[in-house]
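Chain A, query sequence.
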Amino acid sequence: MENFAAFLKRKDVVISPKRYGVDALSAMAQGLFASLLIGTIINTLGQQLGLEYLTQVGGYATAMAGPAMAVSIGYALHCPPLVLFSLITVGSAANTLGGAGGPLAVLVVTVVAAELGKLVSKETKVDILVTPFVTIFVGVGLSSLVAPAIGSAASAFGQLIMWATELQPFWMGILVSVVVGVALTLPISSAAICAALGLTGLAGGAAVAGCCAQMVGFAVMSWPENKVGGLVSQGLGTSMLQMGNIVRNPRIWIVPTAASAITGPIATCLFGLQMNGPAVSSGMGTCGLVGQIGVYTGWMSDIASGAKSAVTGMDWLALVMISFVLPAVLCWAGGKLMRRIGWIRPGDLKLD
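Chain A, predicted structure.
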């Protein structure tokens, strides 16, 4: 047993929740951003501007979502080159066979294939053959066995959340908004979670609300410490930058989380805000304005399908209020109160 543990350590195979649930999942989100998300943005620009070249570029990028996620996960798991490159095929197979739950299938299958590939890497004199063979054979075989089931399960769970949100828009609006918003700030990937569950519709709108409350909320609250740089890095980047400060003083998280609990049901009950673009956009908030672009993309798709006649002024009002105005006002006022009662001290929100 000690010899096997030493072998795993030498191969850098670390079986832990952090390695697979934080490092791999966060890296997968970056792979999603570098393929599906940026491809969707470029494709949307191409469609709206009538530029076929941009539409083609966006199509190429979105088609590579599976390989991009797999390689990103492999990078987070410290895979050697031959394993990393072989994961391109594994990601494509898992994402294709996983259907609506493709991202979750990619995560599960890639982790197994990558770790087994690492175990055999450089252990033989014909490594150039053995390592890619094992990685691809295991990855594609596992994809065939489990990816369809994973996809079906993830899709069913996502459908359950969306059905529950339509049935109970107030309570589920709060739940989805808070949970996805918190996940966005934690060192895990809210985008990958939403993509894996296929979270769209009213539930997607609530998820967008929760993410915006965290990002815009922290950006506005920390203005005294971080000024314009903090406003941009958190408002258009990620609220995850505050994680170190949250560990030092968890009370700074109260206001953005409370804001998400308010804006979520407003999005679902008052505005009926739906996010019918790519599911991954539901977990992005204002990061690169991907959440807002996803909502807009959904509008265009609904108009094309006949489900929606036109984009109205109320649609735009809902998007602006939920994404920017309400989070900013609520967190500005809440931040003032927290500073006044001493729960937030000068420097508590300072970014390094």
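The two ends are 43 Å apart (CA to CA). The chain has 15 helices and no strands.
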